[in-house]
Amino acid sequence: MKKYISILIICMSMVSFGQNPNGDSKEVMITGNIIEASTGAPLEYATVAFTDMQGKIVTGGITDLEGKYAIKVPAGMYKVTFEFIGFSTKSLENQNLTEDTTLPTVSLAEDLESLDEIVIRAETTEVVVRLDKKIYNIGKDLTTSGANVGDALSNVPSVTVDIDGSIALRGNENVRILINGKPSAIAGFGSTDALRALPADAIDRVEVITSPSARYDAEGTAGILNIILRKEKTLGLNGSLQTNVGVPASSSLNGNINLRTDKFNIFNNTGWRYRESPGKAYFSNQYLSSNIINPLVIENRDMDRINRNFNTNLGIEYFISDKTSVTASAFFSHGNDDDETINKTDEFDTNNDLAISRDRIEYESETDTNYQLALNYITKFDDNGHELKADLQFEKENEEEISLINENNTYPNEVVLPSEFITTDENQKEYLAQIDYVRPIGENAQFEAGFRGNFTETVTDYELTEQMTAGGSFIRNDSLSNMFTYNENVNALYSQYGNKYGKFSVLLGLRLEHTQLKGEVDAENVEANGDDALNINFDKSYTGLFPTLNLTYELNDRESITLGYNRRINRPRGRWINPFPSRSSEANIFQGNPNLDPAFASAFDLGYLKRWSKLTLTSSIYYQHETDAFERIQEDTGQETSNGIPIIRTLPINLSTNERIGFEVGILYNPAKWLRLNGSFNFFQFNTDGEFNGIDYGAKNTSYFARGSAKVSLPYNIEWQTNAFYRGPSNNSQTENDGILSVDLALSKDILNDNATVGFNVNDLFNSRKRSSLTTTDTFISESEYQWRQRSVNLSFTYRFNQKKERRPQESRDDDEGEF
């Protein structure tokens, strides 16, 4: 029970705070510092307790991120006790504290007798609940060994990652992803494409922010995922090296090194990765019109993708003084992808006899270069949280795609058809400037204010050349070739106030954001295409107020209730707004909609947390009302391919309203030293109301997803972990999606005196992670099945030097976001 005494101390001190056992109304400020004996590193969240001569705990407190404490105590004689989970307790006896005093620095050594219990906790995902977020310390998750950050997110409660990489929070894909509290090209928006370049071991923790406070961007109606990357705190030189090989063919090498002294901290993470991702897709379109000669078209698509990536992150943190530091960092990545997509199309006549067979082969080469420069400054005016932060960030990304599409009929006669050659050059620049000010007021209150400016420009140069006759010269298609320039500029001001009244905490904030969305197309014959959606020159501005309110009531030291409200915005971006269609299939295309307006949502969240000795329960009920919500629809364009096949496009549109209601529950359970379990269940219902082009797209969608994980300690220090995930069936007004089951299996063993680890895992054990759907309209019926990547097997080896295995939960570390 010793590890829970610190929690009890704080709760008791709240009740007795201000009572003077010595009959003296005078209060004095007691300060000091607690460090780890073996490394000299500060011990954050260590407990300090003051006990009077009658043996009664009068008050207490905890240390900050630098291991410092500042506690007001009624003047008198005390025994001062210092504790931290997994460390031996120290005490200072008979301390006569009658005036402001700085106590000697206290060094706590690890308690070797309690390490086994502590290791169990550190190797399991843990949850910490704050006023505006849930923090998941990932722990030693075996199934992410050799995986990337995108894969690791799929193991976080409330989060799902689709088979094509789309990230959703509580079933909603309108989620904002931050890296260390800031927008980053590494993260993108609602996709793991760039995150696949980073190893999962780079994650320190993931903050799931379903009720964001005013300090965060208002972007993302579902909420925010804030990925905090590791930054070593141990003094001296340390690091690790990890290598992986797998089937389908994959390999990677990643290393990190850290040098920390009293004046500076230099850190670097560098990785190289090669990965093959074979996938498959199936489409069946049944056209209902009697005028179509071949009403049934079946496509079978084989995809072979090869990804190569190099990334490095180098930074230096310089400590100007004990309270002021500057950090400069640079991130660079270079990727080279080679993809081949073979689309075999069979057309059947009204008698279901094969009429035409056709092969369409697309070769695509993509090169991505991305770099980011960042400068961060922080100064702490005192030890009570009074601080100022400033950040500058610049990013530049270049993506070049070259596609060659060859097509030929194979039945009834072999005929070579004209080819297409497509080049796409996309350049993006993003500037960020941010300043945050935090001012404590009294003992329990805090005021925050800040500014953030985000300025992004994306230029997409798209050129389509095609042959008029097979084997002929390539001629530019001026009706589709274009240069699309998209600007998104966001200026934001915020302020918020928080206070704690006994067991009740409140955080109230207001954020003002001004958004400018500007699009301009440079094309010679845009209007000749005959599609109004191509008239896309626009300049729109939106100014919005985004209030936030977060409340917490502590029923006791292990039980609490939270209530949150916030208003959010979802801005259209990327391929959702670019009106020039994909060309992988003649008859099934995706086309962006430049007429999309931002969607606005108001969300409510009621949460409950309960901790027992071996069990933690988290749960919440949530409701969201969204206007101008985005929805993907499928429609017959009225156009046909050169072979007379109707062209069906998928188009994102604004619908009038979207109501979401649901509940989720999560359990972390450690019934024995050799067994750790966790699981979560999320049930939700979407109710959409709206129409487009005279068609009613209103629908009600009820679905759920569940995940479970079991980790078992086997003999000979072997760890075994199994993860299972199931997403239930879902639907919208047109499409029904089948459920998806995925199971991952992993084993690991520490060797070389625990300085190295060998790991083995199987991702998608039953090769069942496939998306199957059925779309029904008045003019066609479409059935499809899609598999992004087949089952994979991975073997990893990790070697650590001067790095200890994590032995204690790190509930709070260096954080680029202020905490209340």
Automatic annotation (TrEMBL):
One of its GO terms (cellular component) is cell outer membrane. InterPro entries: Beta-barrel_TonB_sf, CarboxyPept-like_regulatory, OMP_b-brl_3, Plug_dom, Plug_dom_sf, TonB-dep_rcpt-like. Belongs to the TonB-dependent receptor family. It is a multi-pass membrane protein. Residues 380-799 form the Outer membrane protein beta-barrel domain. This is TonB-dependent receptor. Residues 146-224 form the TonB-dependent receptor plug domain. SUPFAM superfamilies: Carboxypeptidase regulatory domain-like (SSF49464), Porins (SSF56935). It is found in: Cell outer membrane.
